[in-house]
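ugh ok so i messed up the first submission bc i forgot one of the chains. this is the corrected input, ALL of the components this time, i swear. 380 residues overall. if the numbers dont match what u have on ur side tell me asap before i send this to the collaborators (the ones from the other lab, u know who)
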Amino acid sequence: MSKIAIGPRTVLYPLPTVLAGANVDGKPNFSTYAWCGIANSSPPMISVAFQHKRHTLKGIKQNGTFSVNIPSVDLVKEADYCGLVSGRDRDKVADCKFNVFYGKLESAPMIEECPVNLECRVVNTLHLGSHELVVGQIEEVHATESCLTDGVPDVNKIHPFLWAMSPLNQYCKIGEPIGEAFSIGKELKA
Amino acid sequence: MSKIAIGPRTVLYPLPTVLAGANVDGKPNFSTYAWCGIANSSPPMISVAFQHKRHTLKGIKQNGTFSVNIPSVDLVKEADYCGLVSGRDRDKVADCKFNVFYGKLESAPMIEECPVNLECRVVNTLHLGSHELVVGQIEEVHATESCLTDGVPDVNKIHPFLWAMSPLNQYCKIGEPIGEAFSIGKELKA
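and heres the new structure output, hopefully the right one now
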């Protein structure tokens, strides 16, 4: 198995595609991010890396709050669009015909059309270079009722998608199951 | 579209499944993580959240280095196994029949059988609660030669998988493409 060193680069599979939202100068704005991940379990936290120039980041600094909205495959065009244009130039909420709602934090705008919405309060920020890594505590999760199974968000009803980076550079569906987590490896214990 | 508040929880789709590695007391150990994400583009960085008790975290603190290894679907049992047992009790390298190699950092063990390996140097650590969020600069990427297309890691050759959380709780393949990134949203610009 021949290994080749290809230099430092950002490689990770799969990458999520989420819409992060904030009120910028009092107006809701959303942009698309793949550089994010769960950062802590208890209390629940998520990290999102923002380029310094991002309009959404300006709103996060104004309010100390933001949202993470998980789009379904039906919203793939809107999700891509929100990464292509800046809220400085366009009203993305109007262009995408999003219905915006607010929760307990009051200042973190969320997208009704996205099946899962995380309301986050900033707890930490790291200046890392090209990006600012914002860590938010997930203060509340909102889910579309029809996407729940026994009160829990169900991936088979949410139909999220992922981004497979270059050279494929496609958004992709979640594929077929290949094994039960915390179970299929047990046979190696023998 | 009726929304229900379901309380704070860690919800994100899709979640990666990676094997993070470190030398613990001089011996390579690997464990399985889904709480990770790209943290910065330039220089390339990745974050991984470790429970404080994790054996791998002990090794990261000893060396200031770690690896992130991306398994293919062929390694789903091994990846699950490495999350089920602790390196305190078992030699996971032997149990999984992994071949271990080292790169420029010399102290970050990597798994030859994984098609992509990131060599990381710790640049930041955040104590967030249940977990410690370790941010590592990706100093080198190693890839299996047969998984490259024009020198770039190719998801169609790597065959990575994701973890879809409860209630599905399955590892899943990458599914079918649904649209080109940075392109399919352009029609909303009109």
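quick check: Chain B has a mean pLDDT of 97. that seems consistent at least. The longest strand of chain B covers residues 131-144.
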